[in-house]
Amino acid sequence: MSKHDTIINNHVLKNYNRYSMEFASGSGKYLYDTKGQEYLDFLSGIAVTGFGHQHIAIKTAVENQLNHIWHTSNLFEISLQETVAAGLCKFSGLDKVFFCNSGTEANEAAIKFARMRGNGRYEIIATEGSFHGRTMGALSMTGQAKVRNGFAPLLPGFVHVPFNDINAIANAVTENTCAVFLEVIQGENGIIEADKNYIKELRNICNEKNLLLIFDEVQTGIGRTGKFFSYQHYDVLPDVISFAKGIANGLPLGGVICNDKVAACIKPGCHGSTFGGNQISLASASAVLELMTPETLTDIEALGGFLMAKLHALQHPLIKAIRGKGLMVGIEIIETVEVKEIASLLLASGVVTGTAGNNTLRLLPPFIIDVFDIGIFIDKLSGILNSLCETILIKEG
Question: What pTM does this model have?
Answer without folding.
Answer: 0.95
